[in-house]
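Journal club prep — side note

Before the paper discussion, L.F. wants everyone to see what a predicted structure for a comparable chain looks like in C-alpha coordinate form. Sequence:
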Amino acid sequence: MILMGVELTILIYDSYSLKDKRSTVKSVVHRVRNRHHLTTAEVDEWDLHNKAVLGFGVVGSNCQLCRQQIEAALKDVEEHYEIEVLDVEWIEA
Protein backbone atom coordinates (compact mmCIF):
# COMPACT_ATOMS: atom_id res chain seq x y z
CA MET A 1 0.00 0.00 0.00
CA ILE A 2 1.31 3.43 -1.00
CA LEU A 3 0.40 6.66 0.78
CA MET A 4 1.34 9.74 -1.20
CA GLY A 5 0.54 13.41 -0.89
CA VAL A 6 1.65 16.95 -1.49
CA GLU A 7 1.53 20.11 0.50
CA LEU A 8 0.94 22.89 -2.01
CA THR A 9 1.62 26.51 -1.04
CA ILE A 10 -0.08 28.98 -3.38
CA LEU A 11 -0.41 32.72 -3.80
CA ILE A 12 -3.90 33.68 -4.94
CA TYR A 13 -4.09 36.64 -7.31
CA ASP A 14 -7.15 38.92 -7.12
CA SER A 15 -7.83 37.91 -3.52
CA TYR A 16 -8.34 41.00 -1.39
CA SER A 17 -10.33 39.49 1.47
CA LEU A 18 -10.79 36.17 3.27
CA LYS A 19 -14.10 35.81 1.42
CA ASP A 20 -12.29 35.96 -1.95
CA LYS A 21 -9.73 33.47 -0.71
CA ARG A 22 -12.34 31.04 0.61
CA SER A 23 -14.15 31.13 -2.73
CA THR A 24 -11.00 30.19 -4.64
CA VAL A 25 -9.85 27.56 -2.13
CA LYS A 26 -13.29 25.97 -2.02
CA SER A 27 -13.36 25.81 -5.82
CA VAL A 28 -9.87 24.24 -6.00
CA VAL A 29 -10.68 21.67 -3.32
CA HIS A 30 -13.98 20.75 -4.98
CA ARG A 31 -12.39 20.47 -8.45
CA VAL A 32 -9.53 18.24 -7.25
CA ARG A 33 -11.87 15.96 -5.30
CA ASN A 34 -14.33 15.54 -8.16
CA ARG A 35 -12.01 15.36 -11.17
CA HIS A 36 -8.97 13.62 -9.71
CA HIS A 37 -10.46 11.68 -6.78
CA LEU A 38 -7.88 12.92 -4.28
CA THR A 39 -8.39 13.72 -0.63
CA THR A 40 -8.00 17.49 -0.26
CA ALA A 41 -7.99 20.08 2.51
CA GLU A 42 -6.71 23.52 3.38
CA VAL A 43 -4.03 22.76 5.96
CA ASP A 44 -2.37 26.07 6.89
CA GLU A 45 -2.34 29.89 6.46
CA TRP A 46 -6.06 30.23 7.24
CA ASP A 47 -5.85 33.89 8.23
CA LEU A 48 -3.93 35.30 5.26
CA HIS A 49 -6.13 36.66 2.47
CA ASN A 50 -3.89 35.85 -0.50
CA LYS A 51 -1.89 32.75 0.53
CA ALA A 52 -3.08 29.19 1.14
CA VAL A 53 -1.55 25.82 1.91
CA LEU A 54 -3.49 22.89 0.48
CA GLY A 55 -2.95 19.19 1.05
CA PHE A 56 -3.71 16.56 -1.60
CA GLY A 57 -3.45 12.85 -0.80
CA VAL A 58 -4.04 9.45 -2.36
CA VAL A 59 -3.75 5.81 -1.32
CA GLY A 60 -2.96 3.16 -3.92
CA SER A 61 -1.01 0.07 -4.78
CA ASN A 62 1.27 1.55 -7.47
CA CYS A 63 3.67 4.39 -6.65
CA GLN A 64 3.92 5.60 -10.25
CA LEU A 65 0.13 5.78 -10.71
CA CYS A 66 -0.29 7.68 -7.44
CA ARG A 67 2.37 10.19 -8.51
CA GLN A 68 0.75 10.62 -11.95
CA GLN A 69 -2.64 11.24 -10.35
CA ILE A 70 -1.27 13.96 -8.08
CA GLU A 71 0.80 15.55 -10.88
CA ALA A 72 -2.32 15.70 -13.09
CA ALA A 73 -4.20 17.47 -10.29
CA LEU A 74 -1.36 19.97 -9.79
CA LYS A 75 -1.24 20.73 -13.51
CA ASP A 76 -5.03 21.16 -13.62
CA VAL A 77 -4.98 23.61 -10.70
CA GLU A 78 -2.16 25.68 -12.24
CA GLU A 79 -3.94 25.88 -15.60
CA HIS A 80 -7.43 26.80 -14.37
CA TYR A 81 -6.82 29.28 -11.55
CA GLU A 82 -5.12 32.66 -11.23
CA ILE A 83 -2.54 31.45 -8.74
CA GLU A 84 1.22 31.17 -8.33
CA VAL A 85 2.63 27.98 -6.86
CA LEU A 86 5.18 28.97 -4.24
CA ASP A 87 6.15 25.52 -2.95
CA VAL A 88 5.31 21.85 -3.48
CA GLU A 89 6.37 19.41 -0.76
CA TRP A 90 5.96 15.71 -1.60
CA ILE A 91 5.09 13.25 1.16
CA GLU A 92 5.46 9.50 0.57
CA ALA A 93 4.99 6.55 2.88
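L.F.'s comment for the group: The chain has a mean pLDDT of 93. Keep this in mind when we get to the figures.
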